[in-house]
Amino acid sequence: MTSPIKPGHAQTRGAKAAQRRLKDDDAVFEPEAERNWESDQQPLVEIICGKELELYTELEPLIRLCNSVSKRGFNSLESQEVVNFHAHHDKVLSDPLQAGLMSDIVVYYEDADEPKNTRDRIFSWLNVVAVGEAKTRDPQQERYQTAHYLQRHLQLRPELHSVLGFSADTKGYSLYYHDASVIHQCSVGWDNALMLYAFVRQLHQGLPSDPSIVNLRPENVDPSWVVKVEQKLLLITCAIPDPGLGQRRLTATARNVAMDATTNATTNATTDTATDTATDTATDTATDTVTDTVTDATTDATTDETTDAATDAATDAATDTSTVAAKLDHELWFIKDYYPDVRRRFNEGLLYVKAHKGEMLPGMMRVDHFGHPLDTSGNRLTTTDFGDGPNQTRVDRWKMRIATRDIGDSLSNVPSLLEFLKIMYDACVVQRHLYCKGILHRDISHGNIMMAPKDDGRYYKDCSKGFNQIKYLNQVLNPEESPEPACLVIDLGHSTDRDRLAVEPHTLVEITGTPRFMARSVSRGRLLGPPFKPLSTKMPKLNGPSHNLYTSCAAEYDAYNEAVDNFAQPLSEPVRTEFRHELFHDAESTFWVICWFLARSAPKNYEPENPKKSNPDLKAFVKAMETHIPGDLVDGRNSLSSRLDAWEQVLHPKLVDVAPMLHEMHKYIRPEWGYRPDLKKTYPEHAHEALMRLLLRQIARIQGDMTKNVEFAVGETRNLPMPELLPPKSRSATISTLLTTNLPVDTKKRDREDNGEDSTQPRRSKRLALNVESEPSLVSEARNYEWPPMDKWLDLPTHLASLSTSPSTT
């Protein structure tokens, strides 16, 4: 059978001949691609361009135009869902975090065969595809208000990699793109139909997303997120979503509801009832905590009072899970999804591997899974490489995930003074052990030091044979015991691998950390001035019980005294001393954590103080801590007095017995130890040594007389005098991580969210306490969800050079 004769191109010789032939035949054709509006759309465009004040009410010309474009796009695609545009200017978009916003237009998916009545439909950030804003009075305002909406949308949709939005006025329309790095706007006039068609077509095709995260019930007020990590199904029970721009992230506790976890838990439940009771208590405590983003602010979960038919059916299918929901003994997990800079030199997951290489490092969080989540094509989720971000810069970011079963509890839940001192002692031990293993933490903060996990002994069982070159407090008190650290140190996201500093020495000059707790010289990026030279600073001394405890488990007491106290060489001059982030800087951060916690601590049965009657020392301390911004500005912490009576005034009267400890700590931490390079070579841990001696002295004092222990009002803080707000210059909670952006908001009171005010400290996102524990049917839904076929769900970080795992020598 022969083929019909068709016009075609014969084989040509060489590229130039081929190009010439294509040109002669006029072979490249550029279709119109909806450059012009259709005949039924043009009248709507004319109304929008000035013949009606309201674009989305009355005749709704803008809504009708967008739906006309959507219908044409739907007809050209094979899809069961159509994109619909709907006026929403008089209703609030439901928001599980805070008071809602009122977007002029919402865009949503609808089944083409079974359209629903939008009058009864509740729209929320969890189920809209995009939002739009229309302005006829103040067109310039639309860009910032729309950008604010996109931030909220992406914040509450962790499954999405990016979101789209649009705005319109009588002169034209704008399309918006937002991911973890940028918010882009493209504006055109109403003579251009192409952009709107492209926008709608992209919505039909779907937004870039992470297939490993699903909201099982997007129509509900509260999200029901489940995350697939390899073979595990992690149903999120408590979450804090932080918005972009910058290092957008989601931190959450979750319960593994995969079938194998449930089977194991059921077996354990039948064999050990007492263990179940203890575990349930620990689980309840841990679920209330979101580890590296712990915040004092809490929100009540919004309960969804409606139960649809699908839920009823799922309940019947979930009878096997109803008795298991509270019995997943060892299957409580912590998840952190975030978008680090692709240029970041050290991968957090690999640093955890290094920290626990050889012997587990007790008191340091471990990771069970880490890597880059992939899209359905097997590619890493990376922010756009097109255009600039804030301040004409662009940071390329990619998504990372860390999952662990090591879940600590917030310092805000520490029950007593003695327990806090133990936690801080062991936190110093962990930092020293990290240094021995070649890692410098560089982000010590109140959120990154936690109480040890309460997980029915699993954690301490693993710690028993761990690395303990320096003894943990329980071993100091009883040398026969194995390591049982009171703390859990987390977050190596800004840490440094010391074994690679020979090839990347500039790493240690970077400014990293949490502003309130950053060491002063790290905050300014250079050494403190000559007045801070350690001319006469001595190592704190111990006597009595604390000295006996120390010398029973360590042999370097006199060596540290000699190295610090009897220094005869001339101090390095500032011009000859290069700034580097060193271990003693982390010790200073630990000191700021200690004094900030104790200054804010409220004893049991606390009666709130009148902040207006606070003494000057307390006011100065709070102002220095609250208003600190890294950079060249004056650091108020340099001016804080280290006098004993000053620290007595900072603390609550019931805590004045620890004022001598803060007084001596401050005297040791206040000097610039960068002028003593000799200590870095021989005793780099000297500042931690000083803190631990002073902590041990207080621990021995209280254990000798338990009436000296002070119980805290758990979850409460003192009513401190808040400083006056500085000019608006907000910084992120962690430097190198921009979590918020100062976008103006609409002055029209259409939103229930207040306009807020500028502050030197960012407002952390609120915690979402999700009511999934009471709905065992969600377990069945998670198990029966049809996940896309994937070769793997996490891609290990292969872009980095091989990470050294050999312990460092000091």
UniProtKB/TrEMBL annotation:
InterPro entries: Kinase-like_dom_sf, Pkinase_fungal, Tyr_kinase_AS. Gene3D superfamilies: Transferase(Phosphotransferase) domain 1. Residues 323-597 form the Fungal-type protein kinase domain. Residues 1-25, 741-775 are annotated as: Disordered. It comes from the Eukaryota. It holds the Pfam family Pkinase_fungal. GO terms for molecular function: protein kinase activity. This is Photosystem I P700 chlorophyll a apoprotein A2.
